[in-house]
Amino acid sequence: MYEYMGFGMGGFMGLLWLVPLGLLIWAAVMVFDSKKEQRKSALDILQERYAKGEIDKQEYNEKQRDLQV
Fold first, then answer.
1. Is 60 exceeded by the pLDDT of residue 27?
2. Model pTM?
């Protein structure tokens, strides 16, 4: 009665372990990605802001000189 496609209850319970395992892997990837974002240097952030158009070339050059001192 409980056997379907060769799994049975033991196989079903084994498949249930895939859910927490998948969540654990997903959480580890999220933690790694968030730490990766925190390691950006000030120059990297400045370049991103310039690329996005948040600052103009003059402000970019001024801030770049300030950071390289």
1. yes
2. 0.45
